[in-house]
Specification:
Elements lengths: L1 H11 L3 H42 L5 H10 L5 H19 L4 H24 L2 H28 L9 H71 L1
Helix pairs in contact: 2-6, 2-7, 3-4, 4-5, 4-7, 5-7, 6-7
Length: 235
């Protein structure tokens, strides 16, 4: 309890500049934790929806039926958006270039790449702010410490005999700023690295799904092309 009161006393009796630095660091820490919690929930929900959709996709359901199910949902997951973008483009390209499977699949893959990029950008949103907080907070805290120490030594001008007891309170107040900078930076750096890795893994999973889906659509496009050629030869 005495330690808590002592720290509070140091903060309240710090110079204005040091208090301003501490306030900035507290705001940065609160902002980072808001981002950490919000991004964590979003990434977790996205990963879960990805697993559920893949189970549904590979269950043998007709792709058109699955597409209609996705359309009826109020909000689609990332994997569903990639799937819908690919199948929708496949339908358009099949009407425009029915006898050219390569052209059909080029359009499908382009549409799915765009969808993957948009979904990845959504997951990466606000992560640069975590990186900024993690990289700058220690230096902001160090600035507060340096300023506080300078302020303490300036106070020695009017003192005839300088002792440790004279400067210790001011230095202690200043060091609190460094501690607060580290407290703001460490969680931001840890979760930034964690979420970047998770986002990269999820992007890889989407790309893998898009490749597998493209293979299925290519076989279907090839069958359509062969049937059209056979019909043309029969005529």
């Amino acid at each position: 309890m005495n330690e808590s009161v002592s720290i509070t006393h140091l903060i309240l009796n710090a110079s204005f500049v040091v208090q301003l630095v501490m306030l900035m660091l507290v705001a940065a820490s609160v902002l980072s934790w808001v981002i950490i919690i919000q991004r964590g929930r979003l990434i977790s929900a996205t990963e879960q929806s990805m697993r559920q959709f893949e189970e549904r996709f590979w269950s043998g359901i007709d792709l058109n039926d699955l597409y209609r199910e996705c359309q009826q949902q109020p909000e689609n997951s990332s994997a569903e958006k990639v799937f819908m973008a690919g199948l929708k483009e496949f339908g358009k390209m099949r009407q425009q270039s029915p006898g050219d499977p390569e052209a059909m699949m080029a359009g499908v893959q382009r549409a799915m790449r765009i969808a993957i990029t948009r979904e990845t950008e959504e997951l990466e949103n606000h992560l640069p702010m975590l990186a900024t907080i993690g990289s700058t907070s220690p230096y902001v805290g160090l600035f507060g410490t340096v300023w506080g120490i300078m302020h303490s030594f300036q106070g020695l001008v009017s003192v005839k005999q300088a002792t440790i007891a004279t400067v210790a309170p001011g230095i202690s107040e200043a060091l609190v700023a460094t501690a607060m900078g580290l407290l703001a930076a460490i969680p931001a750096v840890i979760f930034y690295n964690r979420y970047v890795v998770k986002t990269e893994k999820f992007q890889t999973a989407l790309v893998t799904f898009a490749d597998e889906f493209s293979a299925l659509l290519y076989r279907q496009a090839h069958k359509v092309s062969q049937s059209q050629r056979a019909g043309a030869e029969a005529l």
